[in-house]
Amino acid sequence: MDSPQKILIVALLCILSVVVNLPFGYFRKRSKKFSFRWLLCIHLPITFIILARIISNVDFKYIPLFLLAAFIGQFIGGKMEF
């Protein structure tokens, strides 16, 4: 895979990670801390990101970047108000 393609795929996966975690961050913030729903809101989106990383054949070295993007999505989702 060429370097520009790899950069594009990693960037798209980071954006996907943020977008997927936005609603989960919103629901996590409104759940009782350490409840089943709260834990589900934290861990369920990670499985989607892992699956997307495996399907796109991205190296393990980018996992911290995806986790940072997931944290940012959770944080922004927790701050959202409707």
Structural notes for this entry:
By secondary structure, the chain is an all-alpha fold. It has helices spanning 3-29, 36-56, 63-79. The longest helix has 27 residues, at 3-29. It is elongated. The mean pLDDT is 94.
**Distance, first to last CA:** 42 Å
Overall pLDDT level:
94
Helix % is over 70%
Gyration radius over CA: 14 Å
Biggest sheet layout: none
Q: Helix count, per DSSP?
A: 3
* Spans where pLDDT lies below 50 across 5 or more residues: none
Number of strands: 0
Task: Determine the structural class based on helices, strands and strand pairing.
Answer: mainly alpha
Tell me, briefly, the overall form: elongated
Oligomeric state of the chains in view: single chain
**Order of helices and strands, N to C?**
HHH
As a percent range, the share of strand residues is: under 5%
Short description:
The chain is mostly helical.
Question: Which structural traits does this protein have?
Answer:
mainly alpha; 0% strand
Q: Would you spell out the secondary-structure blueprint of this structure?
A:
Layout: H1 3-29, H2 36-56, H3 63-79
Helix pairs in contact: 1-2, 1-3, 2-3
